[in-house]
What does this fold into?
Amino acid sequence: MIFSYEIPLILLTLATAAGAIWVKDLISSVLLLGTYSFFLSLVWAWLGAVDVAFVEAVVGAGLATVLFLLTLFKTDPKDTRLRRPPPSLATLIVFPLLGVLLLYAASDLPEFGDPNSPASVHISPTYLERSYQDTHTPNVVTSVLMDYRSLDTMVETVVIFASGIACALLLRRKEK
Amino acid sequence: MVDALYAVLQRPNFLAVVIIFLWGFYIMVTRYNLVKKLIGMYLIQTSVIFFLVSISAKKGATVPVLLSTTEPVKAAIYENPLPHVMTLTAIVVGVATLGVGLALCAAIYQEYGSLDEEEILKRLE
It folds into this structure.
């Protein structure tokens, strides 16, 4: 079955992604990328992944756009290359081939939305059924993220910290 | 061949994922501007996350927040929550790496006065 309301949202996503790719002014490109993120988060909310949609709307559409814009204000906001050179023969062969291979794999995938697909029958029902007894949180995503996988989430802050340190070091070198 | 085409049309999500992935990859390979390359990287990240989110969907299911906390839970009426948890981590880490890449771009611009790959190579010599 095709999710009918999802098709316009996916088309909007593809259109904004194409805009972000083709526009030469980098600031317009980044703003289009933010719109793309927002439409993508709407698609995910439609698919039922509300937590992921919130995070994408805040972090993807908000924070990533702000980071891009800050960089562009400090550097050159124009794509200086007015005429793009034609892509090499290798790219023209490899990319359609990769696309055909990826699409050929589609017939082996479980149908999207199938309740008996392998990802939905193996372990996830156990998490759904037992999470309230174990953690007393109605939101299963929160209980998995903050309780069952709390170490994982804690070490993720180390990753964020490391990237923050890296940014600070790189930009401090810039001040000299 | 017709079967494969039919299978793709049954899965519009997967078609969108493949298109966005290939666009991002193509931009990363062929464009000379470093910020454009990072835009391509962001497209690749979001397309992979989109694939995981589409895997987690179930027909006729609702968001993975329990409707009633007293009755026993029927797993078939909720979406699969595990890919959501993975993708939450992936989004945040992806934006963190994007920030490092943008800081690198700013440092390169400060040093060489350009974001164009070939200009930078010319000034390196």
